[in-house]
Amino acid sequence: MTTTALPLATERTTHRSGQARAEAIVAYVLSAPAMVCLLGILILPTLATVVLSFTDWQFGAPTLRWIGLDNYTHLAADRVFWKSLGNTVLYVAAVVPLSVGLGLGVALLIEAGTSGRAFYRAAYFLPVTATLIAMATVWEIMLHPSIGLINVTIDALGFPKQNWLKNPDWALFSLACIGIWQALGLNMVLLLAGLKSIPRDLYEAAAVDGADGPWTRFVTVTLPMLGPALSFVLIISAIRSFQVFDTVAVLTEGGPNKATEVLLYTMYQEGFSFFRAGYAAAITVVFLAFVLLLTLVKARIAEKRVHYS
């Protein structure tokens, strides 16, 4: 019995090992296209940017020279860089909480409504589908200091007109409002999906326990169960806000007096206007590191407050 069982066990082990090897080969073959795309589109360009940031290469130059940390040393003393970093942080600090909060409010109103849901979803999602360059032109007309709709409205209400895009005190605020307007629709759709996934019987159980008011139901049921979707929306909104570029390039070009200079626009200027590719690469590396750090911090904080079941 023992001598017969040993060959059978060995045969089963060999069969399972061969089957596992075959499954692994199939898995690698099926995932190869995605891995190649990931390597070619994301990993290799990122590594090339990091290497380039340690050189003095300029666009069109036939040669380059390894300069080590000189670009980063220059960044540390560059007032324009620190100004653009500060403006970017302020922009993100304004856009993320307001766009997520308003998106959640709109999602709750649409979910609570009984009619016109499709219309409101489409209306609020329209800015996400529109070309931001074209919409920036529309906003430029609306923010015109004399004939713009916004100034005409506030003048009719008895308030003084403002030169929204040329006043250093209002320019970044104006771009942040455009960013909130654009991000609200996507946040609303993502949070609507999260609201749809909340089981209805939880609200019934909460009502049995005495939580029958709208605010009580929201705090005890909706907000905790919406945790995963809300965490995802916060991270996505922060990353998208850090990538602000289009409105700055079209409406203000970093002005007035660097009041709306942001990191991506500074990188664009250094790389494509001044042709300092190595220095632009250093700004890009700092930008990527900052976004990665912020994402990890947000994910860690949100993870402690999120319920997945």
Automatic annotation (TrEMBL):
<dbReference type="Pfam" id="PF00528">
    <property type="entry name" value="BPD_transp_1"/>
</dbReference>
<dbReference type="InterPro" id="IPR051393">
    <property type="entry name" value="ABC_transporter_permease"/>
</dbReference>
<feature type="transmembrane region" description="Helical">
    <location>
        <begin position="277"/>
        <end position="297"/>
    </location>
</feature>
<feature type="transmembrane region" description="Helical">
    <location>
        <begin position="89"/>
        <end position="110"/>
    </location>
</feature>
<feature type="transmembrane region" description="Helical">
    <location>
        <begin position="170"/>
        <end position="195"/>
    </location>
</feature>
<dbReference type="GO" id="GO:0055085">
    <property type="term" value="P:transmembrane transport"/>
</dbReference>
<feature type="transmembrane region" description="Helical">
    <location>
        <begin position="215"/>
        <end position="239"/>
    </location>
</feature>
<keyword id="KW-1133">Transmembrane helix</keyword>
<dbReference type="InterPro" id="IPR035906">
    <property type="entry name" value="MetI-like_sf"/>
</dbReference>
<keyword id="KW-0812">Transmembrane</keyword>
<keyword id="KW-0472">Membrane</keyword>
<keyword id="KW-1003">Cell membrane</keyword>
<feature type="transmembrane region" description="Helical">
    <location>
        <begin position="25"/>
        <end position="54"/>
    </location>
</feature>
<comment type="similarity">
    <text>Belongs to the binding-protein-dependent transport system permease family.</text>
</comment>
<feature type="domain" description="ABC transmembrane type-1">
    <location>
        <begin position="85"/>
        <end position="298"/>
    </location>
</feature>
<dbReference type="InterPro" id="IPR000515">
    <property type="entry name" value="MetI-like"/>
</dbReference>
<protein>
    <submittedName>
        <fullName>ABC transporter permease</fullName>
    </submittedName>
</protein>
<feature type="transmembrane region" description="Helical">
    <location>
        <begin position="122"/>
        <end position="142"/>
    </location>
</feature>
<keyword id="KW-0813">Transport</keyword>
<dbReference type="GO" id="GO:0005886">
    <property type="term" value="C:plasma membrane"/>
</dbReference>
